[in-house]
Amino acid sequence: xxxxxxxxxxxxxxxxxxxxxxxxxxxxxxxxxxxxxxxxxxxxxxxxxxxxxxxxxxxxxxxxxxxxxxxxxxxxxxxxxxxxxxxxxxxxxxxxxxxxxxxxxxxxxxxxxxxxxxxxxxxxxxxxxxxxxxxxxxxxxxxxxxxxxxxxxxxxxxxxxxxxxxxxxxxxxxxxxxxxxxxxxxxxxxxxxxxxxxxxxxxxxxxxxxxxxxxxxxxxxxxxxxxxxxxxxxxxxxxxxxxxxxxxxxxxxxxxxxxxxxxxxxxxxxxxxxxxxxxxxxxxxxxxxxxxxxxxxxxxxxxxxxxxxxxxxxxx
Length: 316
Description:
Layout lengths: L5 E7 L8 E6 H8 L3 E2 L7 E3 L1 E3 L9 E11 L5 H11 L3 E5 L17 E12 L3 H11 L15 E2 L2 E2 L8 E4 L33 H15 L1 E2 L5 E3 L12 E4 L4 E4 L5 H7 L10 H4 L8 H5 L12 H8 L1
Parallel strand pairs: 3-10
Antiparallel strand pairs: 1-2, 1-4, 4-9, 5-6, 6-8, 7-8, 7-11, 12-13, 13-14, 14-15
């Protein structure tokens, strides 16, 4: 990749800043910054967003395009193992550990690895196509990335460590920018092939069929407990802590102890998220009376048993 290739970004002074300052940065400049973390005890500080906002106010509806794909790995992630999947793609990317990396914090009580992957895009992706790209990345990462980052208006802290002796790692991999237009995304697919899915092999016309697939996947890897429901890892959190899924066969309900949204569960499973029609509404059940109903002959009415005045009226 040409290190002088530049990207449009939005810069913020802190987490409460809602007025982005647009900036142009070369990939070489960004990589240099990724290798030199600031030292600050608190997490809050300068942030960047790969999104451009028009008008310049940090709202989801104001995002017009994004020049980078930024992903936070924080669910039993491994810098070495998870970056191997990106290396196979042959695209350039950078990765750096975040402020809570291997630190005991409220959000990281077991001091696990925490890192961020930044992937430059060959061309900016329009905001309306970004969710499909994020779903593709979630599938690639086996659900280890932070699901809140699917918000296109998300901003990210620049590299920082809590103290001078805090562990920090950065990785810069050369290659070509990721061409999202060549990926099998829902927004890139031929509408005649699949209207709802970002994966040609996993396409569903109705919500019920997709939900059945979700339940079957949970059943396949889960354990049937004594209460009659299945417990399984929540791929959105890699089964960490109180983030197990529960599938109740009697009702068909699927819940996450960490209160994941239904769309987040679908994305982590590599299934198409978003609303699908209901087959029961699209195909209302046709009620059909049995043939015997039409063949049934009623007995003759005993007219002679009626009172004389009424018998005369009936017989006309």
